[in-house]
């Protein structure tokens, strides 16, 4: 019987999906699910949700809840982490500064550098506890910024780890819809709540296959096939019609214009939302060019506005979930697009699966920096998680990825060495910050961020 620990279990974005995902597999229903969070109220609500679901379906799953991390980790087989160190208030403060300087509003740039600065020490503490209490356990990380966190974990701990994101599966589903491929979309019955950042029930596209590699939020569909044949020619033809990708529901975040423009320019489709990808390249968020943003159907502060609303949205979601638990609504067992439970099932049963995981680049993508964090297909079975060899990416894609890797490398070094100068270099090399700000403006922005995050940068030189 596996012991599965969820750290940051109060997270609505993941726990509400990962718990049903685990219970979806009959072979995992005898597991112990241990929920851990520093927020007692959020923890108790999610524990009530999990226990109600187990009770309603008559499973033997044991559900535990604790605010004691070490107690949760004792004897764990799998540790799933989905945390935001410092909470949304810190994220909001950082985003307000980076947005004011028009230096990005996505999972990149100055806001994400300081998110990494808060997150990495906490994740490494979790790993060091694991080295003592459950050294053979797998760490399945959902916390952002994914590449920097996974890079630090791989370089500074001995824990087996993989970073997980739903962007590959979501993009595959979106491309299938753009092509008009028939699929079976699972209904969302009463009692199922799916979050505003893209996690959803897993539809059944039985006729498609893909081969995707690169960086998290910037991986490339090197192959996309329908019934065994290259579907890219058909996709190029279909995307001549703007109504397919400009409609409000093209993507969970709205119109998908930026990704289509990148596809037409560089030849391959990229993962993640258009508003995120626009932050990873220097071409779209142009200063004083609202006409460009209007044409691309993106705005400057998508993430900022979502974080600003997060407190009210969370209170509303909590209220809805409490009402559902009290009313006796039967919570359905629906599998989402998340990989976490699939990994656990394959390791426990030996039934193989293939996921896309964020892992250390040990010669996997040969024209990206050795040792960086890459997102590649991985085979999962009784032996664990085995990343697949990719070789060289097309040169233009590697160049786009490498620009971000250089900034990530300096960020990790700056955080681990507590070196403000390397944080500064990281921002200077960030593709969007470098395109938008002068050296002096970047320094001014960094000083403001350091002042806001004074507690987090104690001891930095």
Describe the structure in your own words.
This protein has 461 residues and is α/β, with parallel strands linked by helices. It has a domain at 3-164 and 331-353: Rossmann fold, CATH 3.40.50. The chain has helices at residues 12-24, 40-57, 69-73, 87-100, 109-133, 146-156, 167-179, 232-238, 243-246, 257-266, 274-277, 290-296, 302-308, 310-327, 340-349, 395-417, 420-429, 431-436, 439-452, and strands spanning 3-7, 32-36, 62-66, 78-81, 138-141, 160-163, 208-215, 218-226, 229-230, 353-360, 373-381, 384-387. α1 packs parallel to α2 (40-57), α4 (87-100) packs antiparallel against α13 (302-308) and α17 (420-429) packs across α19. The model is unreliable at 185-189 and 191-199 (pLDDT under 50).
């Amino acid at each position: 019987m596996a012991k599965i620990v969820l750290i940051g279990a109060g997270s609505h974005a993941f726990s509400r999906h990962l718990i049903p995902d685990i219970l979806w597999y009959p072979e995992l229903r005898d597991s112990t699910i241990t929920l851990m969070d520093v927020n007692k109220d959020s923890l108790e609500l999610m524990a009530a949700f999990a226990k109600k679901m187990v009770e309603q379906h008559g499973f033997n799953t044991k559900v535990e809840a604790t605010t004691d991390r070490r107690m949760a980790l004792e004897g764990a087989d799998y540790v799933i982490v989905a945390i935001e160190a410092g909470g949304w208030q810190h994220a909001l403060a950082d985003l307000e500064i980076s947005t004011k300087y028009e230096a990005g509003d996505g999972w990149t740039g100055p806001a994400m550098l300081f998110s990494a600065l808060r997150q990495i020490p906490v994740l490494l503490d979790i790993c060091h506890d694991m080295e003592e209490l459950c050294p053979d356990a797998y760490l399945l990380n959902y916390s952002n910024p994914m590449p920097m966190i996974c890079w630090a974990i791989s370089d500074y701990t001995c824990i087996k780890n993989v970073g997980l994101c739903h962007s590959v599966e979501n993009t595959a589903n979106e491309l299938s819809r753009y092509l008009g491929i028939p699929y079976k979309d699972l209904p969302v019955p009463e009692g199922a709540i799916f979050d505003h950042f893209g996690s959803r029930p897993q539809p059944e596209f039985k006729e498609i296959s893909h081969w995707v590699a690169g960086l998290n939020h910037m991986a490339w569909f090197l192959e996309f096939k329908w019934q065994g044949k290259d579907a890219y020619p058909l996709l190029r033809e279909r995307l001549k019609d703007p109504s397919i990708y400009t409609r409000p529901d093209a993507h969970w975040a709205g119109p998908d214009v930026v990704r289509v423009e990148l596809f037409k320019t560089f030849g391959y489709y990229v993962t993640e939302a258009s508003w995120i990808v626009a932050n990873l390249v220097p071409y779209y968020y142009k200063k004083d060019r609202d006409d460009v943003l209007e044409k691309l159907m993106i705005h400057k502060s998508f993430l900022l506005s979502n974080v600003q609303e997060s407190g009210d949205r969370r209170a509303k979601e909590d209220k809805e979930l409490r009402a559902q638990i009290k009313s006796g609504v039967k919570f359905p067992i629906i599998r989402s697009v998340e990989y976490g439970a699939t990994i656990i099932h394959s390791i426990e049963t030996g039934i193989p699966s293939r996921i896309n995981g964020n892992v250390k680049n040990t010669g996997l993508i040969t024209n990206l920096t050795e040792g960086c964090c890459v997102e590649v297909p991985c085979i999962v079975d009784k032996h664990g998680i085995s990343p697949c060899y990719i070789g060289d990416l097309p040169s233009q894609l590697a160049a786009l990825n490498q620009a971000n890797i250089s900034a990530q490398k300096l960020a990790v070094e700056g955080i681990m060495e507590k070196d403000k100068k390397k944080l500064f270099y990281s921002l200077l090399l960030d593709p969007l910050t470098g395109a938008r700000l002068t050296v002096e403006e970047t320094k001014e922005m960094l000083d403001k961020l350091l002042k806001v995050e004074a507690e987090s940068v104690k001891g930095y030189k």
